[in-house]
Amino acid sequence: MTRTGPASPPLPSSPPPSQSPPTGKRMLSEQVYAHLRDAIMRGDHAPGAALKPQDLAKEQGVSLAVVREALVRVVGDGLADRLPNRGFAVPAYSDRRWQEIAEARRTIEPVLLRMSVERGDVDWEARVRAAHHRLARTPAYTPEEGEYYSEAWSEAHRLFHRSLMEGCGNRVLLETFDRLWTASELARRWSTHRNPDRDGVEEHRRLEEAALARDADTAVRVLVRHLTLTAEGLTGEN
Question: How much is the pTM?
Fold first, then answer.
């Protein structure tokens, strides 16, 4: 059976001859966007907090137009909301979108995992084991990155879950997984911050063991519980 792997990232393209590389306002907007995105991910802006363009412009030493352009991009990432007549704000814990994303993940990811357990080859097993080893050896928190997960741990976490799904061999389903993962990143950080006693290390260990043992029923059960705990961390449910 022929299996497809994850899509390779597109090669960067050069700007058309008639265009020059981004400069000025565009570069400033890119810098402000990156700063604001990282700040929200670090927890510098609390859930529900207003993102005031005037304050951000003063803080970053740029124009309001530059800040607004960056804010629109952050809204597109799902890391902020644009509120009618109220400007911009970080989404709240109670935002219904988080539960909708969690429901979508609990619907789709168990299907991908079951397919991976059934279809994955030895190379898939090796990738899962390596990704879990990296995750287990990566510190979840670093003092310089604030109170939420570090970027290195977040990437190791994504790669572990992605490797579990890759055995399905279906690129379209994997693209759906990628979109849902990105959409849920902020909620995932908030959830763990609100439930610091959760044993994520054990959850990931059990998930790896069940998948590599080719025990699809147990792997799916562990995954569903894993995803449910993340959603419950935002609602306060137990």
Answer: 0.76
